[in-house]
């Protein structure tokens, strides 16, 4: 498909995987106009999933997580720069680049500004209470780990559980705290979350569920964490994993619609920001309408961001009349100890879940989620087995799904 002839100036805001794939795709698909690429971090794009796993443990070196561009392409690249505003009347993006502010005209804009880690809501914290979102965060955490470090991880989502598994694999004493009744409950439900709760406990993690953090103990440097049940957990280091929020503050007042609840940019099924022309969004910042699930979804997964970045760029070039819907079934994985969690589909709102292959007690199983009699998601610990169920999800197959066995 030839690029839109009217597109002469494109700005891509965001240098994560969504922004990187969008910028590269623009050139690969034949766009030869002016391209400005704005990234908040000073380093080149890198693979973020390794931060809570192999880079944190030291199994890979810093250079090993860089995204190697498949094609070198011509662009004005701004590193360590942040978008600070947008004027849709003049179609310009304001950028703070070092100590100066600049404005860049656009007739095409890709919003891929990603998300920022949620800070501790209770105000200032002692030294030794850290968050993990960037490569610098990861290296700072590594530099503070000693052989006898006592680490408290706050948050039972994917970041919290991955960090806990990684640090426990180094032999550190780890306490993992979650206000939910099971780890990963918000992502996979209590039934499946109980499996990962037991998994962490079997590896020696002190898992505290159904409890809140009331505060920190320490004069200058953290020494302990106070819990809502009046207990205290000693700590040399505390890592907060309370999730992320989309970086959309720079869009305030622009007229671009941002969801009031989760702060994502509201888009149609092609990735076009609702109520605009020539503006698309992708990655953690985007709340796309998904044709299969019939609702707006904002999904914080690497595979999803990569695919969306490509699709957003292609649709920007194609123009609204020829833009294609993005209806890929989301896929996600998480490595914890020797278990690989794989999830295809979106289990949000499920009304039933059952194991369709294997045995949870043995640690190797596939479980399906159903809603209103349809299969909406499949989770598994058997390598790549969940991908066999992708068609059942896209076809809205009855629940529980049954695979067609291939003849021997």
Automatic annotation (TrEMBL):
GO annotation, cellular component aspect: cytoplasm
Record protein name field: Pyridine nucleotide-disulfide oxidoreductase
Domain FAD/NAD(P)-binding: 8-309
Keywords (A to Z) from UniProt: FAD, Flavoprotein, Oxidoreductase
Cofactor(s) needed for function: FAD
Domain spans labelled Reductase C-terminal: 331-380
Molecular function GO labels: oxidoreductase activity, acting on NAD(P)H
UniProt keyword Oxidoreductase present: yes
Taxonomic source organism: Mycolicibacterium holsaticum
InterPro entries named in the record: FAD-oxidoreductase/Apoptosis, FAD/NAD-bd_sf, FAD/NAD-binding_dom, FAD/NAD-linked_Rdtase_dimer_sf, Reductase_C
Source taxon at top rank: Bacteria
């Amino acid at each position: 498909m030839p690029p839109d002839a009217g597109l002469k100036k494109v700005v891509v805001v965001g240098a994560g995987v969504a922004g990187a794939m969008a910028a590269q795709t623009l050139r690969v698909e034949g766009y030869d106009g002016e391209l400005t690429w704005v990234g908040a971090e000073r380093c080149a794009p890198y693979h973020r999933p390794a931060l809570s796993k192999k880079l944190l443990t030291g199994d890979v070196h810093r250079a090993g997580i860089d995204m190697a561009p498949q094609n070198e392409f011509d662009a004005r690249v701004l590193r360590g720069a942040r978008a600070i505003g947008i004027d849709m009347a003049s179609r310009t993006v304001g950028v703070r680049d070092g100590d100066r502010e600049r404005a860049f005209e656009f007739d095409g804009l890709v919003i891929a500004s990603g998300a920022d880690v949620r800070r501790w809501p209770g105000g200032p914290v002692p030294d030794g209470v850290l968050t993990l979102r960037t490569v610098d965060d990861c290296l700072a955490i590594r530099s503070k780990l000693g052989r006898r470090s006592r680490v408290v991880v706050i948050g039972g989502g994917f970041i919290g559980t991955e960090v806990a598994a990684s640090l426990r694999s180094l032999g550190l004493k780890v306490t993992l705290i979650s206000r939910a009744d099971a780890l990963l409950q918000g992502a996979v439900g209590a039934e499946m979350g109980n499996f990962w709760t037991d998994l962490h406990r079997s590896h020696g993690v002190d898992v505290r569920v159904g409890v809140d953090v009331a505060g920190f103990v320490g004069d200058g440097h953290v020494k302990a964490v106070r819990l809502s049940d009046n207990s205290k957990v000693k700590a040399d280091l505390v890592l907060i994993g309370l999730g992320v929020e989309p970086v959309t503050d720079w869009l305030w007042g622009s007229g671009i619609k941002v969801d009031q609840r989760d702060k994502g940019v509201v888009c149609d099924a092609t990735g076009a920001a609702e109520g605009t022309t020539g503006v698309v969004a992708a990655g953690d910042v985007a709340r796309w309408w998904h044709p299969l699930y019939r609702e707006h979804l904002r999904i914080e997964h690497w595979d999803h961001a990569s695919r969306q970045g490509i699709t957003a760029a292609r649709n920007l070039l194609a123009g609204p009349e020829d833009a294609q819907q993005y209806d890929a079934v989301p896929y996600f994985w998480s490595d914890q100890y020797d278990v690989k969690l794989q999830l295809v589909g979106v289990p949000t709102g499920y009304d039933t879940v059952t194991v369709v292959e294997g045995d949870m007690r043995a640690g190797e199983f596939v479980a399906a989620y159903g809603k209103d009699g349809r299969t909406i998601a499949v989770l598994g610990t058997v390598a790549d087995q969940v991908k066999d169920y992708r068609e059942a999800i896209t076809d809205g197959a009855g629940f529980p799904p049954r695979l067609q066995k291939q003849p021997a």
